[in-house]
Design a protein that fits this description.
Shape: globular
Largest sheet: 8 strands, antiparallel
Structural class: alpha+beta
Helix content: 10-25%
Number of domains: 2
Radius of gyration: 24 Å
Strand content: 35-45%
Number of strands: 23
Length: 417
C-alpha cells in the first residue's frame, strides 16, 4: 500500500482514500444432496477515490487497483480519474479526520476451517425430512479483512465473516427461492428454518386463487417489514434534508395522529445476528448509535459525512443497522379480525419519496376467522403516508442483514387487487 500512497501524494490532489479489501471465499454447489462443484478463492483489491478542488468545489472519482498493475498503469488511472472528478463537482466539504476505533470482539462460529464448518451446516440442512426437497443448495463462506485510510489521517480496519446459503425448495412442479445470510449459525434453529421453508413450498403448491378481494387487514413479515419501515429512516437522513425532500423535521410526529403502535427506532453500527454490521462507514467515519425516533417523535437525523458537513451537523456516518422496538402483541393476537398474511412477494416495491408501496404476492395466508388458508394470485397496494398511523408491530422479532425488530407488521384496511 505504501507505493500507492506515494503515487497519490505526488499527484497534486485535494485528497485521497484507499480501501484495502482481502477476501477468502469457500464455495460449495449441490444438486439435491450431491456435491457438484467446490471452489475457493483469494482476492486482494484496492479501491481508490481521488478528490480534486476546483473553484472551491470538490469532485471525486473512484477506481480499482489490482496487485498485478505496475506504477505506470496506476499513474494513468490516477490522472484519468482526476479528470473524471473535475466533471463531478459538489459544494466544498472536508474529508473525515482520524478518530480512535474501539474494535469489537467478533461473535462468530464461522471462523474455523471452512470445509469443516460447511460440512456441519450441510449435514444439518440435508438431515431435514419433508415431502418437499431442496433441488439445489449453494454455500458461500466469506472471510473479509478491510482497511480504510485517507489523506486526512484516517486509518481503520475490521474483520468479518459471513455465510450465504442459496436454496431452491421444491414440491412437485413448484420451485421457490430463499437466501439465508448469517454471521453465526445455530444448527437447531437452522433445521427449523429449513423445515419451514420446505413446508412453505408445499403450501405454495396448495395455494388457491384469493377470491375475497375487499379491503382487509394485511400482515407483512420479515424483509417486507424492514423495507416498509425504511421509509421513516430514509426520511431522517442528512441527504434528504439537504436535498429538501424530507417530510419530517426534528420533534415532528412521524406518524401523525397515531391509532396503532408508536415507532421507536435507532440506527446502530452493529447488532448480533445482523451481518451488515460495521465499525466504520465507506468514508472511514467511526460509527456510533443514534436514537432516531422515540414513541413516534423524530429525535435526530443521521447520514454521510459530506451531507452532515453541509448541514453543520455532527458526523454520524452511514449507519448500517436499523433497530425497531417490538410491539406488545404476538401474531396470534392479530386473529381477532380477518387478514391476509403476505409471505412471498415477487418483488415488493417502495417509493421512498411518495410513500407508495405494493407488489404481487406469490404466497399468502388468508385468515377467515377460524383458520389460515394458503392463497396466491393477488397484489397489494397502499401509501405509507396514509397508513402510518395504523401500524401494529409484533412481539416476535427477527434478525435480518440490516434490521432487528418486529417480525410481523399489521396494517389495517389495505386494498387488494
Amino acid at each position: 500500500m505504501r507505493k500507492y500512497i506515494e503515487l497519490l501524494d505526488n499527484a497534486n490532489l485535494f485528497g485521497w482514500k484507499i480501501r484495502e479489501i482481502k477476501k477468502k471465499t469457500t464455495e460449495l454447489y449441490y444438486i439435491l444432496d450431491k456435491l457438484e462443484t467446490n471452489r475457493s478463492t483469494d482476492e486482494l483489491l484496492y479501491n481508490v477515490t481521488v478528490y480534486v478542488l476546483e473553484n472551491n468545489k470538490v469532485g471525486a472519482s473512484s477506481f480499482d487497483i489490482y496487485p498485478y498493475m505496475d506504477n505506470a498503469e496506476i499513474k494513468r488511472k490516477i490522472e484519468t480519474n482526476k479528470k473524471n472528478a473535475s466533471f463531478a463537482l459538489n459544494d466544498y466539504y472536508e474529508l473525515p479526520k482520524y478518530e480512535h476505533l474501539h474494535h469489537r470482539d467478533l461473535n462468530t462460529n464461522l471462523s474455523g476451517e471452512p470445509l469443516k464448518v460447511l460440512e456441519k451446516i450441510k449435514n444439518s440442512i440435508f438431515s431435514v425430512k419433508s415431502d418437499a426437497y431442496l433441488a439445489a443448495t449453494e454455500f458461500f463462506l466469506v472471510e473479509t479483512d478491510e482497511r480504510l485510510i485517507n489523506s486526512n489521517g484516517v486509518d481503520v480496519k475490521q474483520k468479518s465473516f459471513r455465510l450465504n446459503i442459496e436454496l431452491i425448495p421444491t414440491y412437485k412442479d413448484v420451485e421457490t427461492y430463499k437466501m439465508l445470510e448469517m454471521e453465526n449459525y445455530n444448527l437447531v434453529e437452522l433445521k427449523k428454518e429449513i423445515k419451514e421453508l420446505l413446508n412453505l413450498s408445499i403450501k405454495r403448491y396448495e395455494a388457491k386463487e384469493l377470491e375475497n378481494k375487499e379491503k382487509i387487514n394485511i400482515i407483512l413479515e420479515n424483509d417486507e417489514v424492514a423495507q416498509l419501515l425504511s421509509f421513516f429512516t430514509d426520511d431522517l437522513t442528512y441527504g434528504a434534508k439537504y436535498q429538501h425532500i424530507n417530510i419530517n423535521e426534528i420533534n415532528d410526529s412521524v406518524q401523525g395522529k397515531i391509532k396503532g403502535d408508536k415507532l421507536t427506532i435507532k440506527m446502530v453500527p452493529h447488532y448480533d445476528g445482523c451481518i451488515n454490521s460495521r465499525d466504520f462507514d465507506i468514508d472511514g467515519v467511526v460509527l456510533k448509535e443514534v436514537s432516531l425516533i422515540e414513541k413516534g417523535i423524530a429525535k435526530n437525523m443521521y447520514g454521510s459525512y459530506r451531507f452532515g458537513y453541509y448541514l453543520k451537523e455532527k458526523p454520524t456516518g452511514i449507519l448500517p443497522i436499523t433497530v425497531v422496538k417490538e410491539g406488545k402483541k404476538e401474531l396470534s393476537d392479530f386473529k381477532n379480525d380477518k387478514y391476509v398474511r403476505c409471505v412471498r412477494f415477487s418483488n415488493m416495491q417502495l417509493d421512498s419519496n411518495t410513500g407508495f408501496f405494493g407488489g404481487e404476492v406469490r404466497l399468502g395466508f388468508y385468515f377467515d376467522g377460524k383458520k389460515e388458508i394458503p392463497v396466491t394470485g393477488f397484489s397489494i397496494s397502499g401509501n405509507i403516508n396514509e397508513l402510518k398511523n395504523v401500524l401494529y408491530l409484533s412481539k416476535e422479532v427477527v434478525n435480518l442483514p440490516s434490521y432487528h425488530g418486529p417480525k410481523y407488521l399489521l396494517i389495517k384496511g389495505m386494498k387488494i387487487a
